[in-house]
Design brief:
Layout: H1 7-10, E1 44-56, E2 63-71, E3 75-81, H2 83-94, H3 103-113, E4 116-127, E5 130-139, E6 142-148, H4 150-160, E7 164-167, H5 168-174, E8 176-177
Parallel strand pairs: 4-7
Antiparallel strand pairs: 1-2, 1-7, 2-3, 3-8, 4-5, 5-6
Length: 179
């Protein structure tokens, strides 16, 4: 076996690494900072998980899953999610348990064993058709915000009985009213 790798190139400082042939990713300067935010409350409205549904995509003919959330004013928000997360949310909604812990059960167990509790879930942003969420965990009297996909946050929130909130600005952008 002939290995022609040049190990000297692998150890070059970053400013010496050639950039030719690398794709341009564009300016991400207008992308919102998803790091820990200062302690500010958004105008949050509690939402309930109505259910998880499948829809046959007319273009790909593949089933796509979504979770439907609704606030007490009758505004509904549909969030497209992966099928594994849809299954996990469905299991939690049904109150079913598995023989072995699923990923979101594991997350719940880790948080609890470390002395924390899930205080709330907040779906706090919608940017370029992508929703963002935070899991608020209380540990030793301090609140820690963890950036999350909404589907994972919802699956965890349902398991821990934590309330789920959505920023009013997100509801204004994405909600449709019941008929």
């Amino acid at each position: 076996m002939d290995d022609e790798r040049n190990f000297e190139e692998e150890n070059r400082p970053e400013d010496e690494i050639p950039s030719e042939g690398l794709p341009e990713f564009g300016d991400m300067g207008d992308m919102p900072d998803r790091g820990a935010s200062e302690d500010k409350r958004l105008d949050e409205k509690e939402v309930k998980v109505v259910g998880v549904y499948e829809h046959q995509d007319s273009i790909t003919a593949q089933p796509a899953a979504f979770v439907l959330l609704r606030d007490n004013q009758g505004r509904s928000v549909l969030i497209w999610i992966g099928r594994p997360e849809a299954y996990s949310i469905s299991v939690a909604l049904e109150g079913a348990s598995m023989d072995r812990p699923m990923t979101h059960d594991l997350m719940k167990n880790i948080i609890q064993r470390l002395g924390g509790t899930v205080d709330r879930i907040v779906i706090d942003d919608l940017w370029h058709e992508t929703y963002y969420a935070k899991v608020h965990i209380v540990i030793n009297g301090s609140v820690v915000e963890i950036d999350s996909r909404p589907s994972d946050a919802i699956a965890l929130g349902l398991r821990t009985k934590a309330p789920i909130y959505m920023a009013e600005s997100v509801l204004e952008q994405a909600a449709v009213y019941e008929e």
